[in-house]
Amino acid sequence: MFNQLKSRFGAGLAFGILGMVVVWLVILVILPQILMIDYSLKPNLLPSEVGGPKDAFSLVNYETLFNNDIHLAIFFKTLWSSVLVTVLTLFVSYPIAFYLAKVATPQKAALCLLLLIIPFWINEILRTFSWYIILAYKGPLNALLLGLGFIDRPIRFLSGDGGVLIGMVYAYILFMIFPIYNAIESLDSNQIKAARNLGAGWIRTHWRVVIPHAKPGIATGCIMTFMLAAGSYAVPALLGSPGSRWFTQIIYNWFFEGGNWNQGAAYAFLLLVMCIGFIALVMRVFKVGLGDIAK
Amino acid sequence: MDSSVHLDNTVMQFGDFTAIQKTDLKIESGEFFSFLGPSGCGKTTILNMISGFLDPTQGDVKIGGKSMKGVPANKRPTSMIFQNLALFPLMTVAENIEFGLEVRGVPKNERKKASDRLLELVALEGSGTKKVSELSGGQKQRIAIARALAVEPQVLLLDEPLSALDLKLRQHMRTELKEIQRKTGITFIYITHDQGEALTMSDRVAVMSAGKIQQVADPITLYRDPHTAFVASFVGENNGIRGKVLSSDSGVAVLDCGPMGKLAGRSYGNLVVGSEATLFIRPEHFRLQSEEGMHTVHADIDEVNFEGSYLTLHANASANQALSIQLGTHQFSDALKIGAPVDLSYDEENAIIIAGEDNV
Ligand SMILES: Nc1ncnc2c1ncn2[C@@H]1O[C@H](COP(=O)(O)OP(=O)(O)O)[C@@H](O)[C@H]1O
Ligand SMILES: [Mg+2]
Fold first, then answer.
1. B193: CA distance to ligand 1 center in Å?
2. Hey, which of B11, B13, B14, B208 would you mutate to test ligand 1's pocket, going by the most ligand atoms within 8 Å of its Cβ?
3. What is the ipTM of this complex?
4. Which residues contact B320 (CB under 8 A, 6 or more apart)?
5. Model's pTM, two decimal places?
6. In 3D, which of B75, B83, B207 has the Cα closest to residue A196?
7. Strand, coil or helix: what is A199?
8. How many whole angstroms separate alpha carbon B45 and alpha carbon B52?
9. Could you give the CA distance from residue A233 to residue A168 in angstroms, rounded to a whole number?
């Protein structure tokens, strides 16, 4: 790689570029992770005890989670809800991505993409707040549904997990739409016509032809959405009810309210491991390779 | 079974653009019918209307006498072979062939039997478990044919299916397609811009230009008796010589072709005396010896090409009248050299005069 860069930019610049990449990787990616693991393996000590006999590596911080039923329940609930968010986002995004890639004229597709992207120019917190307003008990959505006669009483969207789910589906929809859109876009339209011509209805055409082709894109979208959902803090903090706490909120509490960074680091590390393990498992089940996703 | 296809006063427009002008055409059951025309003339559009991917703006498509209005593409008794084949790359060869049967709920063992039988028909026994990407161009072509035949269509639509193959394979596949059509008795609707393909395989050919059907006839008639200047110059090679009509009577017309003198040929109907017309003579219809009743053109040789069993000459008869002539190799002599004058004769029977100065 260095030689390639050197032949293009000269030795000095190549060295500079590579140097910056290395510095970025080490200082901003690898070092913090190592620090966090180091933190997580040590007990929370008073400054005076640091370096003393109690300052030794142990797995105590990791055991805490498994001894706390409430935290454990929230841990698995976060996993399960993130799966739900991912599946819901997939169901919403797939038809949109297909429409954009194969049905809409180029002008219409460009307009739709613009409309999808514009809200994301606003900060995530503000966007989530707008959902807080929309979903409120006396908010516009309830007013609309009441006005149209679909419901007789306003719905408490924000009291269960509903608000969090809706908020997350919305927050991460682009991360799902774009990879799927790219994948479907690259499908030869004649493949769809051929399936139709051989008698396939729409469902089978998608199931046998479009989805298998789009699988890497679907996998990429699902992984991103799942990771973002599991690691989300703003959406559950703003749209969640006390009963729908996210594991990230517990990590936050350890760090900033409990003041126990060591415990927080262990929890954060467990969340990361769980996410990676879960994704690896799902990829295995659906026979998706890492190479498919990198495409 | 009636598997005729009737384009019943069909028109296809895209916005303001008329891709297919009003067409009324009946393709008979079991016929090998071709649409021949240059790229962009609307051939694929016609297939798309028959297969249900496009709804005609006006008129109707009838298959086996039944109107196809409102019948979606997946419910029509047609099967298409796409220009780029469109095999499913993520399925095996057998899965590709069986796809149409799978859709129809045919059980696995019967599907297997059908795909084995079809693989045999296209001479690819035992390739069922291969991936599509492992096949050569010609093999892919055959699998596309097998896949389309698997659903036992009444009408097979072929969109320039041989255009991606090399010359030798293309010629071989022509014979094979014709053979398959004979064996199955299915109506074949074949699209091509290659006149050789259309002429060798078809029972009848429709020549198209810019969304309009110019002439529908069997290949020999099309070659011998083109009705329009477009057909005369698009189907086979032709020399077009312009002139003014001097007389036109009982199927024979005479043109005043300026410096080339008066030339006569067959004509359709009576031409208006004094109007512009074009006389078409095929390269192989020129003779070096004049016989009784023949007409003669004087020209100078520009080029002599030896092609094996025949010779082609390029000659100019006047300032801007290039002629191409094809002679048997036995007619070669030292007199045929660049710059030499040559007398070219033709039989009136072999020349066609068509109204209009447009020789495309
Ligand atoms: N869906 C469409 N929208 C607009 N114009 C089209 C469409 N399909 C085809 N055309 C136009 O119709 C004409 C005929 O196209 P086509 O039938 O594909 O030609 P061919 O198959 O003879 O090459 C072309 O000018 C093409 O640009
Ligand atoms: Mg075409």
1. 14
2. B14
3. 0.81
4. none
5. 0.82
6. B75
7. coil
8. 10
9. 10
